[in-house]
Amino acid sequence: MYIGGIEAGGTKMICAVADESLAIVEQTAIPTTTPADTLAAIFDFFAPYPLAAVGVGSFGPIGIDPQQSTYGHILATPKAGWQQFDVVGTLKAQWPDTELIWTTDVNAAAYGELRLGAAQGKDSCVYMTVGTGIGAGVVRDGALFQGIGHPEIGHTFVKRHPDDTYAGTCPYHHDCLEGLAAGPSLEGRTGIKGQDLPDTHAIWDLQAYYIGQALVNITLTLAPEKLILGGGVMNQPHLLAKIQAAFVEQMAGYMDTPPVEDYISAWALPNQSGITGCLLLAQERMSEK
Ligand code: ADP
Ligand code: ZN
C-alpha cells in the first residue's frame, strides 16, 4: 500500500505518492482549474497506486469541524467554482477505503516543518506563508491546532505604520495583515512585482514592520517554541534579518524569547513543507490502523 499527499493550492495542486517509509515514489503539480477537471487529473495521477491514507492540506477557508455540514468543503474563496465545493466528499466517493486527513495548507506546512524541518524536536511552532496571501498554521503539543475553524492569522489586524496610507488589498478587511503585507501589496504600493524590487527599496522596511508585528502578536497570543516563515516573498534573502530586527524592536523587551536568529527562521523545506506535512499526516494515520 501507498500513502498520498495533496497540497491543494489556488494555483496548483501538488500531489505526491510515497511508500510507508515516506520515500516519494512520484510527485506532480496539477493546475487548479475547475473542480471537475482538477479532481479528474488528481485521480488519474493516483490511479496506479492503492492508497491506505491521503493527507490533504487545502487553501481556505475550509470547513474543519466534523460536526458541521461544511466539513471537508472549501468555504468563502474568491476562486471561481470552488465556493462550497465538497473536497472530502468527492475524494471519499472515489476512494471509499482510504483514510483521509483534512486540514489547511499552512497547518500541513507547520506540521512538516515541526517533524522534519526548522522546528524539529519541538512540540509547537507557527508557520507563516507570505505569498499571494498570508496564512499561518499552528502546531501545539505536536498536533494541528484547530477547533470550530482553523487559525486565520493572515486576516488579523496590525497597527498601521504612521507613514503608510496604502488602502490594502483584502476584499474583506482592506487593511488587515494580508491586505497590507502579502505579495500583491508590494506591487500595489510600488507598481513593481516583489521579485523585481531591488533589495535597497524602502518598502522592505515597511514589509518587515508588518511581518515583525504579526510575529509579535503570535508570540504574545500563543508563545510557540518556534516561528517559521516561507512563501514567495521570503525569497528575498535580506528580508529575514529585517523582520527579526522589527520583531525585537516591537516586542520592546516585554517577553523573553529565544535569541531571535533561532526563534524566527526561514522554512527548512522550501516549497516542500506543505506536501511533506500532508504525507506525514497520512503516514501517521496509516500506522495507527
Ligand atoms: P502562492 O502564495 O500563490 O502559493 P507564492 O508563495 O509563490 O505563491 O507567492 C507569490 C507571491 O510572492 C507573488 O505576489 C509574488 O509577486 C511574490 N514573490 C515571488 N517571488 C518573490 C521574490 N523573489 N521577492 C518578493 N516577492 C516575491
Ligand atoms: Zn483580510
Automatic annotation (TrEMBL):
Enzyme Commission (EC) number: 2.7.1.4
Cofactor dependency: Mg(2+)
Record Pfam families: ROK
Coiled-coil residue spans: none
Annotated GO MF terms: ATP binding; fructokinase activity; metal ion binding
InterPro entries in the cross-refs: ATPase_NBD, Carb_Metab_Reg_Kinase/Isom, ROK, ROK_cs
CDD domains: ASKHA_NBD_ROK_BsFRK-like
Catalyzed chemical reaction(s): D-fructose + ATP = D-fructose 6-phosphate + ADP + H(+)
Keyword Metal-binding: yes
Keyword line: ATP-binding, Carbohydrate metabolism, Kinase, Magnesium, Metal-binding, Nucleotide-binding, Transferase, Zinc
Family note: Belongs to the ROK (NagC/XylR) family.
Protein name as it appears in the record: Fructokinase
Species whose genome carries this gene: Candidatus Enterococcus testudinis
